[in-house]
């Protein structure tokens, strides 16, 4: 379970890295494309990108820009809620499930081992109870292994959820910037 959990955390980290957009680098280039080539040029530029904000959010906004600001807002909000956020939450329920199951499996291993140890103590009929210390130690080892797996996974899950919440705010901010850029476009240029 530890190996599976670690694999999922690494996978989610790689997906997060691919999702990120450096807006301070992207926006000047995007604005230049928008000014020189209009909405169609900006749309082509965004479609070529691999990061989430340009490729999905800005494309949705630019595709509906001719319908007005309200349509752009709806399109971008729908893309955020129905496409991007589900993708950003991908693997998070699985990571949390493994963390919870690992704790329960560790506890189960402890209980089973303790039952066996107490049965041995009962069979000894007042004999050397100290000889069963190894069995008790083994029982507690099961709990420790469950916790060693669960604690980092729960921590990773919490960090990923916080990252998703932060990314959602950045997407909403980026959507607003797109609307402002299109509204600031000179009237003589085709939108």
N- to C-terminal separation?
Answer: 53 Å
> Approximately how much helix is present in the residues?
over 70%
Quaternary state reads single chain
Total of helices: 6
User: Which sheet architecture does the biggest sheet show?
Assistant: none
Q: Determine the structural class based on helices, strands and strand pairing.
A: mainly alpha
Mean pLDDT: 90
Q: How does the overall form come out from the CA principal axes?
A: rod-shaped
Unreliable stretches, pLDDT < 50, 5 or more residues?
none
Order of helices and strands: HHHHHH
* Number of β-strand runs: 0
The fraction of residues in strands falls at under 5%
Radius of gyration of CA atoms, rounded to a whole number: 27 Å
Strand and helix layout:
Elements: H1 2-19, H2 23-48, H3 52-63, H4 69-88, H5 92-124, H6 133-184
What does this structure look like?
This protein is mostly helical and 191 residues long. The chain is 84% helix and 0% strand. It has six helices and no strands. It has helices at residues 2-19, 23-48, 52-63, 69-88, 92-124, 133-184. Helix 1 runs parallel beside helix 6 (133-184), helix 2 packs across helix 3 and helix 3 packs antiparallel against helix 4 (69-88). The longest helix has 52 residues, at 133-184. It is rod-shaped, with a radius of gyration of 27 Å. The relative contact order is 0.15. The mean pLDDT is 90.
Summary, kept brief:
The protein is mainly alpha-helical and 191 residues long. The chain has helices at 2-19, 23-48, 52-63, 69-88, 92-124, 133-184. Helix 2 packs across helix 3 and helix 3 (52-63) packs parallel to helix 6 (133-184).
């Amino acid at each position: 379970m530890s190996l599976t959990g670690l694999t999922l955390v690494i996978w989610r980290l790689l997906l997060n890295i691919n999702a990120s957009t450096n807006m301070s680098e992207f926006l000047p280039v995007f604005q230049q494309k928008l000014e020189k080539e209009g909405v169609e040029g900006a749309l082509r530029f965004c479609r070529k990108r691999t990061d989430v904000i340009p490729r999905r959010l800005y494309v949705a906004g630019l595709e509906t820009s001719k319908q007005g600001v309200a349509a752009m807002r709806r399109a971008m909000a729908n893309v955020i809620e129905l496409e991007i956020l589900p993708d950003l939450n991908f693997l998070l329920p699985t990571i949390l499930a493994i963390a919870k199951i690992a704790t329960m499996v560790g506890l189960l291993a402890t209980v089973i081992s303790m039952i066996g140890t107490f049965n041995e103590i009962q069979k000894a009929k007042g004999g050397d109870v100290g000889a069963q210390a190894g069995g008790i130690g083994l029982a507690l080892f099961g709990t420790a292994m469950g916790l060693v797996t669960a604690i980092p996974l729960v921590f990773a899950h919490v960090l990923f959820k916080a990252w998703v919440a932060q990314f959602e705010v950045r997407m909403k901010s980026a959507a607003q910037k797109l609307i402002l850029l299109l509204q600031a476009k000179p009237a003589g240029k085709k939108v």
